[in-house]
Amino acid sequence: MTTNVLILCTHNSARSVLSEGMLNHWARMLGKDVRAYSAGSAPSGHLNPFALEALANVGIDTAGYRSKSWDEFVDAGAPRMRIVITVCDSAAAELCPYWPGSPVKVHWGYADPSNASGGDTGKRQAFELTRQAIGYRMLQLLTLPLDTLSNDALQHHLDRISHS
Predict the structure, then answer these.
(1) What CATH superfamily is the domain 3-159?
(2) 157 assigned to active site
(3) Is the pLDDT of residue 92 over 70?
């Protein structure tokens, strides 16, 4: 059975998009039955071009990616999530909707690479470093025996990953 993972950020334009791309990429590469989705509490309606560039630079196809509301994932017929990850502090502090199935929730915070100094060069570097940090945690998630872990055990492992 597919393990669905929802990754949240406020605007769903940068960190959550990087996370969705990296988790889906590594899951395909490793043959894991995991599917990542991303959304925002207040979606911007556009994707950060530096996030798309960072993913494209490692061969990740972002066709079909869009900035979307987390409301899409509470509607009837939405994929049932096993894990919900917040990747920005403001989203972590917000009151999240009720997620059907009571998924395991964890916060894996990353600084906003959009705020990097140094013009476009500085932003590109910040997005690449953020992509690498996200990719490392997503690889750790994919090493877990997701099909056999209880929610309590999964919570423990995800909390440990948050400190890596």
Answers:
(1) Response regulator (3.40.50.2300)
(2) no
(3) no
- In whole numbers, what is the pLDDT of the chain averaged over residues? 94
Catalytic one of 96, 111, 142, 149: 96
Q: How far apart, in whole angstroms, are the C-alpha atoms of residue 22 and residue 97? A: 25
Q: What is the mean predicted confidence (pLDDT) over 53-67?
A: 97
* Residue 112 DSSP one-character state: -
Stretch 129-139: mean pLDDT, rounded? 98
- CA-nearest of 74, 93, 72, 113 to 10 is 93
Is 155 designated active site?
no
Asked if residues 90 and 12 have their Cβ atoms less than 8 Å apart, the reply is no
Catalytic residue among 88, 104, 133, 144: 88
Residue 163 is which amino acid?
Answer: H
Is residue 124 among the annotated active site residues?
A: no
Q: What is the pLDDT of residue 150?
A: 97
The full length of the chain comes to 164
Q: Where are the domains of the chain?
A: 3-159
